[in-house]
Amino acid sequence: MSSQDRPTSTFKSKIKSRLPCTLVVSIIGFIAFLIRIRPSNSVFLSNGFVRFGGNDPWYHMRTLNFLLENYPSRVFYNPMTNYPYGSYIHFGPLFDQMMAITSLLLGMGSPDQNLITTVGAYFPAVLGALTVIPVYYIGKYLGGHKTGILAAILIAFAPGQFLHRSVIGFTDHHVSETLFSTFFMMFFMLALISAKEKGLRFEHVITKNLDALKEPLIYSIMAGVMYSAYQLSWPGASLFLLITLVYAVIQYVLDNFRGESSDYLGIVGTVTFLVSSILILPFVHPEMGFSMYYYSWFHVVTALGALGIFEVLSFIEREFKKRNLKAYYLPLVIFGAFIFGLIAAKITVPSLYSLIINAPHSIFGIQTGGPSTIREVTSIFYPEGGFSFSRVYEYFTAPAFFASIAGMILLTANIVRKPRPEELLALVWGFLIFMAIYGQNRFAYYYSVNVAVMGAYLAGRFLELVKWGRLEESFGTNVKSLKDFPGFFKSVKIEQVFAVLVIFVVLVFPEYSSSMAQTTGTGGPNGPWIETCLWLQSNTPDPGMDYNAIYEAPEDGETFDYPETAYGVMSWWDYGHWIETIGHRMPNANPFQAGIGGRRGSIEDENQPGASTFFTAQSEEEATEVLEAVDPDPDKSGARYVISDIEMAALYDGKFLAMATWTLDSEGYYAQYQIEGNSQILPTMRYYNSMESRLHFLDGNGLKQYRLVHESWAGQSNEVAYKKIYNLFYGGNVSEEDSGYVKIFEYVKGANITGTAAPNETVKINTTILTNQGRTFEYSQSTTSDSEGRYKFTVPYSSEGPTSGETRFDTAPTGPYVVSYGNTTKEVRVNEEAVLNGEEVKV
């Protein structure tokens, strides 16, 4: 064989040796994809509706359609939500751009809506399956091919948050966060391994030694690209910057104690964050100042700051060696430099200093007050105010979770014995994400990667006990074709087969079983909510906004200039994106936690107007004051429609207490009572007096300016139980039946019915309301005439039906109002104009 043939032969042998692992990883990735598209029937409904999961996926589809409608311009400010202020969009641009480009390519430049929704639905499943690739390589470089394959299997089958956020229809950026952050760690790890093996020094940069620089620089550049991709998927990517810097400080100290150069680390870190700072710069919005929530100077400055930290640490480390200083002084010097940097930031850029100081608590701290009601930001170990492993078992399975802890302990022992940069990086990464899930369970979709890697690392070490390495060598040496397999199987030992079975039974099967149980559906708006939002779109007045137009943000300190026809829809923030995206109407509150109102500091603070203050208001007058105060224009109210559902109304197993918690005043809505010798917790009158209860359970009976205009069909709930308690303990007379799961009310001026009776006479007015579901209830009011016999009722229902251009309500009185006093009864008809304009109707 000639010398010219050897490189080709070597290349072919490398390709051939990689084919089995490539094939296995590809199969694992395909299985991961199949798992994630199992519940496709719950996304693509039989009636043609595509139901995306959760809340934010709907908004990503909204921003995707924005983008395709105005390509390549992307929306940054959206006045169609958080009415009357609008919301700046903090979502990263990359996730939407990837879907948009895919749609444009598949649609040959003109994708239709069916193609766009199909791409959007399948996209998270594709990204979730691709995560198998970096997980495999991380596992491989920690413990060989066996560890990589096991890690790939564990992440493919991983249940819980990672599966939930990568399943078909959950079109949210969280899966791209996981994919790109894992790719970042993979390339950063490869850069460290390569730079360490080549003994990379700063002198190699000066002398342009490409042999030493080429491979580490390529990996470092790719790490920077992936960090940028991660950052452009989620503005909070500084979490992994923190992980990298914590690792770097520990690595510098260890290298110094061992008398080794850390130049390799300084070069890798410098290149990585130089690349990332350059790539993120075009997406910065300078008007946001220093904000972690939006793309701002904070993201460029922190990347450049990380670059500077690597440079400073490298300089300090080299000075230590040059001056032959004691190694144990280095941690003190680094700590001093850190304090100096904080002081400098506080003096020069106080807002940046505040962000840096508060960032650890926002990530690792347990939330209180209103934010504690947001499920994804509560602690994984304290889900309902007490310690529990329930979410741990749900998100990871118990064997996988505890295997990851054991794997980290084993890795720590290995580092103490013989430290390697990639192992220390993996350990710091795993530990800090573990701390993050202590603060917020949402980071469980990150920790699923750590569980897979650390569980595989533990299992890989277990396989080493049964001489698995010899089996791999035998396979590589003796298996050249399919006919060699029988001979290879003869060399397999019984203890090796047993070890594999143990790993699959203990680690893999529980994950597989759990993931199968968790992919029976995808969540998202249920039938009543879909029907309600579609009704809202078709039967309420056009607010006068171009739905897919890109609007300029208002000048600083000013509010958006809405047309006179614009109005808001008041509901709890959970439903804001559904109202906007399905209903094409403007919610007051949304899942960006905008428009909630209430208090943030203490009960002494002013209760700001918003959804929480409206629905917990103790009278119609108080609720109306809130609604009017939402809009800064004194001539306009904050909302024209109010939407309630049974979950908002439910006290024990619903969202009512969450609304109250945002006001920091959640006491007194329930109390303990002794009933027939048994202690029971029951709702109090404070609960039944709330605007939410008045609307949903009492159908707005007796309210002057709120009328039920549409209800969905009834759903499974405890509504009857709440009504029975109201009737039994508080003298109510409500029909004990289930009503609409979702209800739409309209806020109107109300017609003023006036008349005369005897002085100080009790006067009543009532009518029977027939809903679109065929249900009837009584609407009534009572008042006392004044000393001259005059009385007045303000009523919200029209007995004459809707008018053109206004609400096409399908819930209305079955006949005229009946006014009664003494032995007198009179019928009164009220037209829609009187109700909308507050006109007088004389009896």
Structure in words:
Pathway: Protein modification; protein glycosylation. The chain crosses the membrane at residues 21-37, 115-137, 149-167, 179-195, 239-257, 264-284, 296-316, 328-349, 395-416, 423-439. Residues 43-303 form the Oligosaccharyl transferase STT3 N-terminal domain. Its EC number is 2.4.99.21. One of its GO terms (molecular function) is metal ion binding. This protein has 843 residues and is an alpha+beta fold. The protein folds into 3 domains: 5-36 and 131-517, no CATH class; 527-746, Rossmann fold; 748-842, Immunoglobulin-like (Sandwich), CATH 2.60.40. 52% of the residues lie in helices and 9% in strands. It contains 32 helices and 16 strands. The strands form 5 sheets. Strands 10, 11, 13, 14 and 15 form a 5-stranded antiparallel beta sheet that branches. A 4-stranded mixed beta sheet has the order 3-4-8-7. Helix 10 (210-231) crosses helix 12 (263-280). The protein is elongated and about 105 Å long. The chain starts with a helix and ends with a strand. The model is unreliable at 1-15 (pLDDT under 50).
